[in-house]
# Entry
Amino acid sequence: MSARSYPIPFPGENTEDDDLAPFPEPEVSSLALDTKPGAQIHYTYYPASKSQGNNPNPFSQTLIVFLNGAMMPRSSWDAAIRSFLEKRITGRLPYPGLLSYDRYGQGESDPDPDDPHPPPSHGHDAISAVKALKQFTLQIWREHLDINKPTHYPCLIFVCNSLGCALARLFAQCYPGTVSGLLFLDSIMANSDYQAFWPDPDAPDFDPHILPDDVTADQVRAVREKYRSMLHPDVPSPEGLSRRNLAKLLPDAGAPKLEGYLGRGPYLTVVGHDWETFAEQSSNPPLNVPKALTMTYANPAWRRYNEELCHITEEGKAIGPITAVRCGHFIQRDDPRFVSDEMVSLLDRVVNRVQQVSNRD
# Structure
């Protein structure tokens, strides 16, 4: 998708003919957690927009945090973040602080210093990653909070892809009252071994006639093995984050209900991939899954999971599942402007506290 240019002044440019605020300079840096000294977590931070005269920024105590999946580093969010900021600046609208980061063992960040073995490994689990995220956001907030309106901890909005969606759910469970909004982009099926939704040609009751036309039992075996070798929870993680106990931590797609900011359920948007695009992408290496198999088995299973996800907040707070048209699993890569649009929509719901219909596509 081609990038659209916005007339936004950058620092140092002449702005006398335009009263638009300049595009903010990000802080690209790293820090060591107080609880894990010696290992650096790399991050990109954009400060919240400044209050204008008698119009205070309603998001001055809010922080949007981007949670990566297992295969994409924080840089995968750059285009969506830029698109979001362009929309807010050209609309002369306030925005909160924005934070993307590489988890331990991801991107530019160091491995988790507490892991017993170097990655790929099962060094730590999702709860460990959530605790590190809590400490990380606490230290970021401590360094960047508005001294005129200090709060101990920000109101969080999570924008997540894949595994990041599971981490956001666990965070909201572990730290109730901290999260006001959630944007899930093709969430991982946290309770799945990525085997059960495929037919098993070696099962005693297997009926080959249930397979789509032109798909053989041998092809199904190959797909099951490919998914097992790449996506099964027993596969060691390149970052050291194990998924072995993820199904026990999140056994139900639609439960438990989350307690968000001020004791209310968080606003939630659930987005799924485009079936055709995902099937096409999955037909290529490294998965090489026949499109008919993805369309018949994987896509419906994922849709059912996303439908259940909409129940993790109180009634009237969830939208979805909606489809990211022409996007595969990595929605922020395939259409960053779609992601920024959904961020704007979620932000409006959070600040206006409006009730939403449960479906929008």
